[in-house]
Amino acid sequence: MLIDRSVSSFLEDTASSSPAPGGGSVSALASALGASLTAMVCRLTIGKKKYADVEETMKAALTKAEEIRFALRSLIDADTQAFNTLMMAFGMPKDTEDQRSARAEDIESATQRATQMPLEVLRQSAKAVDIIQTVADHGNVNSRSDAGVAAVLIGAGARGAAMNVMINLPGIKDAEFVAATKAETVRLEEEVTARCQAIAQKIRSGLDTVDRS
Which among 34, 77, 99, 172 is most buried, taking Cβ atoms within 10 Å? Predict the structure, then answer.
């Protein structure tokens, strides 16, 4: 599994001539890293006397951040697996009419599946934005830059996931599926990227005034 490999191994695989892991898995990883940083800031805030008044808020944020992190973690492999299944469908025999029909059905199903994986990354990224906002507003000020990086990564993961959805849509025949998926993707991408950018910019503009005492 990709998730069990070393960072070095994952980078080597991504840089190789193999098309997978590709942009979909990397987008899931980016958002997962963002969720991980969010959880870290929560943990660096919980238990500190200075932040006692937001203790329960940060505990709730940590629970949600961890749920999102594990969901995105699983999507790193799920995206590559969906891509490999699609490649297998394209490799099916097409000598007879029955074979061509079976191949077309499998390609349609596999393409939809390959589209649903990055869409789920986008959905999970959208869930993470509220948590990042909470962490940015109430988290340990010594880790504000980490919260900013979390916002940048979630935004990048969302935009990358959206691109991986869009590239698959022209290959899908189900018009209703395409229309619904495109509408959701556009809406979520715009929402997530705008909010993450705003969070990151607000954090960045205030870093030189942070009191770390």
Answer: 34
Question: 198 lies in a domain?
Answer: yes
CATH classification at residue 131:
1.20.120.680
**The overall pTM is greater than 0.90:** yes
> Does any domain span residue 10?
no
Burial of 32 (C-beta count, 10 Å sphere; 0-12/13-18/19+): buried
- The domain in which residue 131 lies consists of 22-208
Q: For residue 209, name the pLDDT band (cuts at 50, 70, 90).
A: confident
Domain for residue 99, yes or no?
yes
Q: How far apart are CA 91 and CA 74, in angstroms?
A: 26
Tokens of 23: 């942009």
Residue 11 lies in a domain: no
- Nearest-angstrom CA–CA distance, 122 and 177: 17
